[in-house]
Write a structure and sequence with these properties.
Length: 89
């Protein structure tokens, strides 16, 4: 990547951030890094929470499908027993 794509008019880096955001970002680089760490932590926590919810939903779906499969297997067993009794009699 060329330097010109990272800088705008020689006045410093151009990160394509709105003036509103730039107005609230700390000017000290260490404070900026601390803010970035906090934002990253929040984003990760949010993503983990969403994934945990999805895991819970998928486990519930799996449980329901297992229950349906068990019910079908039970019906098949009952029908097989009826067939064996009918073929004996």
């Amino acid at each position: 990547m060329s330097l010109s794509s990272n800088y705008s008019g020689g006045s410093g880096p151009d990160f394509n951030l709105s003036d509103v955001i730039l107005a609230v970002i700390p000017t000290d680089p260490y404070d900026q890094l601390d803010l970035a760490r906090k934002i990253t932590s929040m984003a990760i926590a949010s993503r983990v929470s969403k994934l945990e919810s999805e895991v819970t939903r998928l486990r519930q779906m799996m449980y329901e499908k297992d229950r349906v499969a068990f019910d079908i297997e039970e019906k098949v067993s009952q029908l097989e027993r009826r067939i064996r009794r009918a073929s004996r009699g």
